Amino acid sequence: MDCILQTCELSKTYENTLALDNVNIRIEKGGIYGFVGQNGAGKTTFMRIVSGLSFPNKGDIELFGVSDKKGLAEERKRMGCIIETPAFYPYMTASENMEAMRITQGIPNKKVVNQALEIVGLSDTGKKKIQNFSMGMKQRLGIATALLGEPEFLMLDEPTNGLDPVSIVEIRELLIRLVAEKQITILISSHILSELYSLATNYIIIHQGRILQSITKKQLDERCKKHISIHVNDVSHAVTVLERNLFTRNYKVMPDNSITLYDFIDDIQRVITAFSEHNLIIKNIMVAGDSLENYFVNTIGGINHV
Predict the structure, then answer these.
(1) SS3 assignment, position 111
(2) What are phi and psi of 22, to 5 degrees?
(3) Rounded CA gap, 196 and 172, in Å?
(4) What does DSSP say about strands 185-190 and 32-36: parallel, antiparallel, or unpaired?
């Protein structure tokens, strides 16, 4: 699989504040990466460095396989970014704003303006001024400006911040369509895990400038899924009882020799009875599994850090 972005021990200090602490991230082609962290965790700093708006104190960036300074400047032309709030001319229309940005960026193809506006659903706004746009329309216009250079990689910093539920769904559907139809890889930041759940294929969790986890959606679902966690004196015998007496194979034996059972969540006593009848000693048994929000809180070290 092609690597779009890879960083090695990327660090950034502002005066006496360590904003990024040896950040190692790898982004593969074709996914939507949810960059999750509280406000001030380092998400925006990381995106600014990758986009060339800021510079690290140490560490390396590799973009599309290129890491030298001159090469990075060239490869950044294959990126589109919205970092912080997009700035527009309020008394100009969407197409006028886009045309001004096309000229500023030195993009010769005039057709990209209408193409980008069509992709985000703003091709019919006509003479309507930006000052009369809704928040959701402004965010979609921001994404359109990021698409002007027909990028292969898109970085979006909190693109749904402050939007109403309908606008959030519109942005989500737009981004999913960009990946499916344009094969664009996306890194999207948010401080709310649940907001990204219907969108992201991968998750990168950052806290106080450090990467705590990089996991796939499948792994996240597995870790959050409700289950019965069981510790017994004889794992092999317990597995036999599950299959022959409780008629289930919906379980996993974990590396610590515990058993994760996805059945009988609402009838844990049935499991206890079956094990007891077959002389198994239950050391510990409990229903486990987190909500997405709880998983994030636990990952960053508990409620006191939120």
Answers:
(1) helix
(2) 50, 60
(3) 9
(4) parallel
88 and 166 share a domain? yes
Q: Which pLDDT tens digit goes with each residue over 53-85?
A: 999 999 999 999 999 989 999 999 999 999 877
* Residue 226 CA from chain centroid, whole number: 22
Q: Is 223 exposed, middle or buried (0-12, 13-18, 19+ CB in 10 A)?
A: middle
Count of the separate structural domains present in the chain: 2
For residue 124, what are its two tokens? 């019919």
pTM of the model: 0.80
Alpha-carbon span 217 to 193, nearest angstrom: 11
Decide: helix, strand or coil at residue 251. Answer: strand
| Strands of the 58-63 sheet, one edge to the other | 17-28, 3-14, 58-63
CB count in 10 Å sphere of residue 264: 20
What's the CA gap between 213 and 204, in Å, rounded? 6
Question: CA-based angle 142:36:32, to the nearest 5?
Answer: 60
Q: What percent of the chain has pLDDT over 70?
A: 98
CATH number of the domain that residue 277 is part of: 3.30.70
Amino acid identity of 144? A
